[in-house]
Amino acid sequence: MAFAAFGGPGAAAAATAEPAPLRKGWIAIGLLAPGLAYLLLFFLAPLVSLLLTSLQVAPEGAGKGEYVPGLEWGNYAQVIAAYWPHILRSLGYALIATVLALVIGYPIAYFIGVTARRWPLVQALSLTLVIAPFFISFLLRTLAWKQLLGDNSWIAQTLHGLGWLPASENIVGTPFSVVFGLTYNFIPFMVLPIYASLERLDRRYLEAGNDLYAGPSTTFWRVTLPLSMPGVVSGTLLTFIPASGDYINASQIYLGSPQTAMVGNVIDRTFLESQQYPVAAALSALLMGIILVIVAIYVRRSGTEELL
Amino acid sequence: MAAAGAFAEAGADLELVGIHKRFPGFTAIESLDLTIPAGSFFALLGPSGCGKTTTLRLVAGLEQPTSGRILIGGEDVTDVKPYRRPVNTVFQSYALFPHMTVLENVAFGLRRRRIQHAVEKAHEALRLVELDHLAQRKPAQLSGGQQQRVALARAVVNRPALLLLDEPLGALDLKLRRQMQLELKSIQSEVGLTFLHVTHDQEEAMTMADTVAVMNRGQIEQMGSPEELYELPRTVFVANFLGQSNLFTGQIASDSGEAVVVDVAGVRVAVPKARAQRHTGRITIGVRPEKLLLHSSAPEPQAGVNVLGPGRVTDVSFSGVSTQYTVAIPGIGDLVVFAQNMVFGPVVHEGAEVWASWHVEHGFGLADEAPEAGRFADDTSTGSLARQTKEELLGELEEHGER
Questions:
Q1: How much is the pLDDT for B169?
Q2: Which candidate from A205, A212, A227 shows the least CB-CB separation from B88?
Q3: Is the ipTM of this complex over 0.95?
Q4: CB–CB of B260/B276 below 8 Å?
């Protein structure tokens, strides 16, 4: 009705007042259009293309990488039968890395978000240190770890010397080094969301807990942790989802070996090397479906829908 | 669990001995000694920054005194952790756990102490504050007044030897505040606990507490029953903080044995000796605005009555029950007079020439001297502080609701 005030009395006012909601609707659509177009072009269309590819069939006598459109649901049965160990390994590694990142990341986030509140400089510096690794390429950092954990590195030598690592074994190429790499690379994604929710934590709740006979550890489990659950849920999702699809850490060039191959490595190989496009697409779609189900159950079980 | 024995059906004494509390840069509490008898309703009254909340936090164990001892029920708890003290607090911000239901909030303390039938006891406490029907709600779904009652139930349910109330009514509107004052008072007499209530609202302190201690700059200025503090304030601060006062400063001119006569800008004003803290030299005397009578003609000089005037009415403000007149008296300054509205509306109008009189026995003599400029100090400072706090809290609550 704001327009009516300028339109003068009578019919003129009514005429200007009426189209206002319509105009507003067009403005909203105009503002949303770029985003919608982006999603259609770069998310929905590739997704449909991926699903269609996953159902393609190789015609009689076709060469390498030649497929025609089809409805071959058997592709899914085939990839599950062939690659279920890789799928389980991916989920297992990602789960372990997520738990480790949480155990390591939470205290860091707590220190920055709660303990260091009194010293803004320390807080800013610690936050910078958490983000600093991003200034160096992910690949370079992972390669650096390959050097640090390599067979001739002082770490491996020391472990050999102490007899904790048999002389015939190495660190690089083991599940340990892959999980280590995943944990290391995803810790900032765990720390930042937890920090964001702890930073808002009202200390008065902690005082109230103390006042109501809850010692420091009980207050943590009953008050601090539940109140930071939105951060924990976002952090674990931001770690688990990309970690389960990761193919850098587990690849032979970096910290892995053929024995540590994850789904990502299989997709990489089947798509780029053997050009089995339907297999790669079916694996991608399958991984996406599994992650969706896990995330849905997780978010529901953690009871954070209303906190999120 | 040194203090566990103190969880009793009745309240316990609280004793503060020689408490000092220094924070980096300032001293919050300057040598505080205080004894609160078991089962009493005690109010610590003072403006923001006077150290009253710090005192409360020291008793709760949320702060450590720089020196001094704190005793609850005769037991030294100075070094006891807050979660081991038989004390519960109703926080100013309520601090209800947002992720728990009302019932879980109330049962929290009982569960930590592994008390049997925690849920039934929590329901019982909620019935006491008439909120049992909302037990399954989350705090964010309650109104400010309801949250306040949950906070109270959450503290009372533990039957602490000592219940600490940190301006818990500050965020409520006037009507609800009155109602809660009455409820708090009745709950206190029902459960028989010792209540230590911190507030900057003098009316709240006076209506609720058996004993009020007025605190200023980290020290207790005066302590006593509300009537005593109001009728016979000992210092300028108390005279102005607890209600309003008309204060006059002058040299003592004569001493009749019963009363001293003070020369206030040439006018002789008598004050009973028994009601004056000092009997020699320059003193500040005062009288409460409602003790003054206005006359439209000069009253007959009479023994036992002080008269000031003539003066001119400079302001008339009608407030329903009473009317507040401001009278400018040449050479003395502004007088404030409260008159009950016995007839309809104000009896004298702005600009009228009036005299003011009061009975000598209503005056009081103070121990310290009023500062020259603020002879009649306004109490808006505390009023506006209270309003400011309330607005802040309401803002905070709203923010909370939106999240």
A1: 81
A2: A212
A3: no
A4: yes
